[in-house]
Amino acid sequence: MVQILIQQAENSTELILIELQGALEYAADKQSLSGERLGFLFFTQNEMPVCVIGQHILDGKMVELDKPLLVMRKRQVDGINNTSYQVECTIKRKLLFHKRSKPIVHYAPKKC
Amino acid sequence: MNDEIKHFPENVQKLLTDARIPIEQLKPIYYELTIGEHFPDDSIRLLEVNNSLIEELDKSKKLVIRGAHDDSATLCTSDQIFEIKSAETSNTLLLASPLDSSSVNKENGCIALTVNSILHSKLELTQCVSKLIRIRQLFEENPYRGHFDDEENSTRKITMENLRNDIQASDQAIDAYLKKLNVITINGHLRLLDFDFRTKLIEYIISIISIQDWSKDNIPIDKCATEMREICPKYVAKQFLEQIGTISNDGNSIALNGNTISTHYALDLLRNLEKMKLSEFMTCWRECVPAEFPIDLEKLKEFVIISEGTISYIDIDNLSEKPNERIKTLFSRKNTWTLSELEPFLSSLTTSNAEFNSLLAMHTRCIMKDGQKYYVPKYN
How much is the average pLDDT of A89-93? Predict the structure, then answer.
């Protein structure tokens, strides 16, 4: 039997949770993605978030979570008997992009 | 209007134009999402909790997960226990952190956010009942028998810490169960008193108070424990006395709990028999229990099944923890039950009144007989 502890980290990190419908496709394999730009996030004057990822525009909203989330980091020292979790952050809201994305359409300039 | 951050940089303006997002409707501060250098961070897990767990975490700075490698994992707090299960989502969850939360690049109003985790699942908690039967099994490996006890031989010494590590239950549930089992401490270890040994102790105490002419409501703990040294050490006697009586305000004496005594005698009569005629049992019971202690069948509710003029012992801890199996066993021993008869056996399987009622509705149906409500199995 094991007892695994979940503990507050000494310094909490600030994290933002963004939820997108569907999946993100990666052009290359995961490891080489570091540094790659994912997209942009804008907010309208009435606080509505707009996300642009690749050729997609997503409209969303800021939502309070029904149940808060703990973001935990698993620490494993010396095998399974020394597993523990550190809570890096508590999340109470998320940016939810629940509508279908709209494509960015590029219009070729008309020739005169 | 923020005049310092009037326009987005050119590339961003172009993007917004192509996307047909009217720039004037946007706030001037925007965020650039980049994949971080630690991507993918595989050590991150999301755990869905509730406000009381957050308070618990703030207060005691930790939450505890317990489980055997083949058990499901459970989250245990001081008074609650939850099953932990992973739930997948078809949505994509990004965790983004500001590169430097205090700085906004004033030149172009951009805050950089790095994404180090992209997740598709979270851990969910479902409240469940404690699995306490293991505690009793541990203790029954070596119950205490007084001076004849061979403590050196005990293969397993149990401490409170062992229990917290081994048992999937909240601390409160463990404490309450230990109290119910009347566990005592011997040399820092927890032990269960052997049943027949308890009978011996009770009879010894009753004869001592008669000899000493003490009142059953005012027994001096120290003197009584001294008188009991023939059958057990003084510190064991003291613990036992405190379990079977109510301690006085000054801590020096106890008032014997009549209910505890008479229940013990009832169990002594019934536990080794298949069943007994109810009338015979009541006579025997009244004869065994010293006259000054009352006998009350109601108080035996969670230990017995009374059916068709007979009474038999039932060990609730040996019943299945699965509601449908437990109900099957109960109805196999008795066909019709009243609500108050069913309640002691089923309430420990549910975590709320609503759950209890829905359990009944699922497995039983109600009939009226002579103006009384009875429950019978739903399907014969």
Answer: 94
